[in-house]
Design a protein that fits this description.
Length: 262
C-alpha cells in the first residue's frame, strides 16, 4: 500500500514537471511570435474587454471587502496598543504590496484561465484550429498571442482598481466605529506609500497576467479526448495558474526585499 502511494506521488511529480517544461516551451514560442506581423490589435482590444471589463463586478466586491475586513479586524488590535493612527498606513501597505495583486490575480485566474482553456479546448477538439491551419491562418498567433497579451495588459489595471476600492473600504470600516476625516485618511495613505511599495507590486501583476493567459492557452491549445479533455483543460488551467501565481509571488517577494530593502 505504501509502495502504491509512493508510486502515485512520483507519477504526479513527474507529470507536474513535464507540464512545467512543456508550458515553458509554449511560452518561449509566444515571445518569438509576438514580434512578427500581422499584429492583431483588434483581437487584443476585444479580449481585453471580454477578459477585463466583464471581471469588474467580482473584483469590485472583492477589493472593497478586502479593505473593509482588514480594517475591521486590525482596528481592535491596534487600539489595544494605542496605535489606531497607523491603521490607514497598515491597510494601504498590506493591500498595495501583497493582498491586492495576489488576490486579484487568483480571482482573475479563476474566471479567465478556465475560460480560455475551455474556449481553445473546444476549438481544438472540434478541429477548428486544424481548419485555421489549412486556411493559411496562423492559429497560435491569432488565438494564443492575442489572449496572453490581453491578460498581461489588463491585470495591472484591474489591480489598481482593486487597490483603490480596498483603501475606500478601509475608510468606511473606520467611519463605522469612529469619526475620521477623509482628507486625513487619504493623507495618511499617501504618506505611507513609497516608490518601492507601488512599482514592484504593480510590476509583478504583469507577470501574473502572463501566467494566467499562457496557462489557459496552453491547456486549451493542447486539449484532447473530446469534451472530457475540454473539461480537464478548463479545471487544470485554474489549478496550475493559481499554483504558479503563488510560487512566483514567493520568489518575487524575496527578490523585492533583496533589491529594495525597507
Amino acid at each position: 500500500m505504501a509502495d502504491d502511494t509512493e508510486l502515485k506521488g512520483k507519477g504526479l511529480l513527474k507529470r507536474f514537471f513535464e507540464t512545467i517544461s512543456n508550458l515553458s516551451l509554449f511560452s518561449i514560442r509566444f515571445f518569438k511570435e509576438v514580434l512578427l506581423p500581422p499584429y492583431e490589435f483588434a483581437e487584443i482590444k476585444k479580449h481585453m474587454y471580454e477578459l477585463g471589463v466583464k471581471t469588474l463586478p467580482i473584483v469590485s466586491v472583492t477589493g472593497f471587502i478586502i479593505g473593509l475586513v482588514l480594517a475591521m479586524q486590525s482596528q481592535p488590535v491596534l487600539k489595544r496598543f494605542g496605535a489606531e493612527s497607523f491603521l490607514p498606513a497598515m491597510v494601504s501597505l498590506s493591500v498595495v504590496r501583497e493582498l491586492g495583486p495576489v488576490l486579484t490575480a487568483l480571482i482573475f485566474a479563476g474566471r479567465v484561465s478556465s475560460g480560455i482553456g475551455a474556449e481553445l479546448g473546444s476549438m481544438r477538439v472540434t478541429e477548428q484550429i486544424d481548419a485555421m491551419e489549412v486556411s493559411a491562418i496562423h492559429p497560435y498567433r491569432f488565438l494564443v498571442v492575442t489572449r496572453i497579451l490581453a491578460c498581461t495588459l489588463i491585470l495591472p489595471i484591474l489591480t489598481l482598481y482593486v487597490n483603490f476600492l480596498a483603501v475606500i473600504g478601509g475608510f468606511i470600516a473606520m467611519t463605522l466605529t469612529e469619526s475620521i476625516n477623509l482628507q486625513f485618511y487619504l493623507n495618511s495613505v499617501a504618506d505611507s506609500l513609497k516608490f518601492v511599495d507601488i512599482l514592484p507590486a504593480l510590476g509583478k501583476t504583469f507577470i501574473f497576467g502572463f501566467i494566467v493567459g499562457s496557462v489557459g492557452a496552453y491547456k486549451g491549445y493542447n486539449a484532447e479526448n473530446g469534451t472530457v479533455g475540454v473539461g480537464q483543460a478548463s479545471t487544470s488551467s485554474v489549478v496550475l495558474a493559481s499554483l504558479l501565481i503563488l510560487l512566483v509571488d514567493m520568489v518575487l517577494v524575496k527578490v523585492t526585499v533583496l533589491l529594495w530593502p525597507t
